[in-house]
Design a protein that fits this description.
The complex is a heterodimer of chains A (112) and B (109).
Chain A (H helix, E strand, L loop, with lengths): L3 E4 L2 E4 L5 E7 L5 E8 L3 E10 L2 E4 L7 E2 L9 E3 L8 E8 L6 E3 L3 E5 L1
Parallel strand pairs in A: 2-11
Antiparallel strand pairs in A: 1-3, 3-8, 4-5, 4-9, 5-6, 7-8, 9-10, 9-11
Chain B lengths: L3 E3 L4 E4 L4 E7 L6 E7 L6 E6 L4 E3 L2 E6 L4 E6 L8 E8 L6 E2 L3 E6 L1
Parallel strand pairs in B: 2-11
Antiparallel strand pairs in B: 1-3, 3-8, 4-5, 4-9, 6-7, 7-8, 9-10, 9-11
Classes of the chains: A mainly beta (112), B mainly beta (109).
Chain lengths: 112, 109
């Protein structure tokens, strides 16, 4: 089954404790992205990657890091999480030609 | 001006009603347009692409007006299961997709 998976789905952590949210897709897509979604603000792109070893900042990259060492994986790293990073996070991927974007099920992160 | 703007709603309509959403975009060079649907606390999913000539998929009709830089989504004979947030999405060149904030629809029995 074609899908984007994210782990963990739910995470409660404390300020400053480094965490990684994994993202994996099995569709051989070139493009992958991370978004956060907050009430009233919609989906905001954090980082995106157009291929292996190519990453670019989105609209809200501060406080986040990503890497794209393999085509299928695109982890999101919060080196020192803060409460304002409490949000619903989505990973997504798409093929360069089709433009249809597939989203993972989301990760709900709470930073206390 | 924001790149993609939508009326946030909510639109509360009775079952069977026809409802229309509009979305405006600021980049006149945008070439591809889509509507995504997002159920509460779920991931967005592609509903339909929007073509210059307009396109229909069952009860859903999408239209594009390049001159005025807006796209629309029409839902006929609304069902309870249509309740969701509808996201307008625009693609300009080799750049990431740009999402609107979404329009919330509630279909009431």
């Amino acid at each position: 089954e074609a899908q984007v998976t994210q782990n963990p789905r739910y995470l409660i952590t404390v300020t400053g404790k480094k965490l990684t949210v994994t993202c994996s897709q099995n569709m051989n897509h070139e493009y992958m992205s991370w978004y956060r979604q907050d009430p009233g603000l919609g989906l905001r792109q954090i980082y995106y990657s157009m291929n292996v070893e190519v990453t670019d900042k989105g609209d809200v990259p501060e406080g986040y890091k990503v890497s794209r060492k393999e085509k299928r994986n695109f982890p999101l790293i919060l080196e020192s999480p803060s409460p304002n990073q409490t949000s619903l996070y989505f990973c997504a991927s798409r093929d360069r030609e089709s433009y249809e974007q597939y989203f993972g099920p989301g990760t709900r992160l709470t930073v206390t | 001006r924001k790149e993609v703007e939508q009326d946030p709603g909510p639109f509360n309509v009775p079952e069977g009603a026809t409802v229309a959403f509009n979305c405006t975009y600021s980049n006149s060079a945008s070439q591809s347009f889509f509507w995504y649907r997002q159920d509460c606390r779920k991931e967005p999913k592609l509903l339909m692409s929007v073509y210059s000539s307009g396109n229909e998929d069952g009860r859903f009709t999408a239209q594009l007006n390049r001159a005025s830089q807006y796209i629309s989504l029409l839902i006929r004979d609304s069902k309870l299961s249509d309740s969701a947030t509808y996201l307008c999405v625009v693609l300009s060149g080799n750049t990431p997709l740009v999402f609107g904030k979404g329009t919330r629809l509630s279909v009431i029995a």
